[in-house]
Amino acid sequence: TIDLTLSVTESPQALARHAAKIFVDRCHDAIEQRGEYNVALSGGRTPKLFFETLALSQFCSGIPWEKVNFYWVDERCVGPDDQQSNYRLAKEELLHKVSATHFYRMKGEINSQDAADEYESLLRRHFQLSEGEIPRFDFMLLGMGSDGHTASLFPGYDGIEITNRLVTDQYIREMEAWRVTLTLPVLNNARACVFLIQGKEKHEVLTKALNLLSDRTLPAQRVQPHNGKLYWIVDQDAYTG
Ligand code: 6PG
């Protein structure tokens, strides 16, 4: 069984507010129970409005940001100031605005294999993992591409099958680009995985993806946290097309 909540919102703004509310609620629970909140962020278009919304005083004022640790789900192989950088997006739209102090980016500017190795070591250190252990994030922000990819785990590539690594690099032929990404075991060990899906162009893939129980061919469908909650928050445009 999976603990899935599907929410359909009337607009992208409502989607962002709904996700921000979940972020805040889970933050309070995590801090009360464990004293910190470990978050992993994705990039792409959809998180922008979520970050902006979270930075509004209505949401951000109640959060003890010094107890929030930000990590990344994936990164493009570009420098931290590049327009394409997932780190840059989060920094500009959220981290700077709320004066976040603990954030740990994937290094898109160095060789992707080294960046993956470094990030894996960083996670092992921070989460004090022994051999074979997997970090348990409190809030994993995810998106889905029109091809069904999530994080930088793409259909038809071996990254999605990797089980002996926390972080990997992956060359994406269609994009002629390298990516660095958390692997599926890390996604599926989270306490909450939160997909944000927005726009008509996602309708077709969303219709397929939501057959989570009978079909697990798309990488996004394989995100089914074994001891956590799965949220799919989608807007009306994506849901009805
Ligand atoms: C990235 C991502 C990626 C993203 C999807 C959806 O770095 O691009 O983390 O997995 O979530 O491509 O992106 P949109 O929100 O732009 O549709």
Quick summary of this structure?
The protein has about 240 residues and is of the alpha/beta class. The chain has eight helices and ten strands.
Task: Outline the structure in words.
With about 240 residues, the protein is of the alpha/beta class. It has a single domain, classed as Rossmann fold, CATH 3.40.50. The chain is built from 8 helices and 10 strands. The protein has helices at about 10-35, 45-55, 55-60, 85-95, 110-125, 185, 205-210, 235-240; strands at about 5-10, 35-40, 70, 75, 100-105, 140, 165-170, 175-180, 190-195, 230-235. It has a 7-stranded parallel beta sheet. The protein has a 3-stranded antiparallel beta sheet with strand order 4-8-7. β7 (about 165-170) and β8 (about 175-180) form a beta hairpin. α1 crosses α2 and α2 runs parallel beside α4 (about 85-95). The model has no long low-confidence stretch (mean pLDDT about 95). The structure holds 6-phosphogluconic acid (6PG). The site of 6-phosphogluconic acid has 14 residues, from loops.
Based on secondary structure, the structural category is: alpha/beta
Strand content: 15-25%
> Could you tell me how far the N terminus lies from the C terminus, measured between alpha carbons in angstroms?
28 Å
Roughly how much helix do the residues carry, as a percent range?
A: 25-40%
- What bound compounds does this protein have? 6-phosphogluconic acid
| Average pLDDT level | 97
| Order of H and E elements | EHEHHEEHEHEEEHEHEH
Radius of gyration: 17 Å
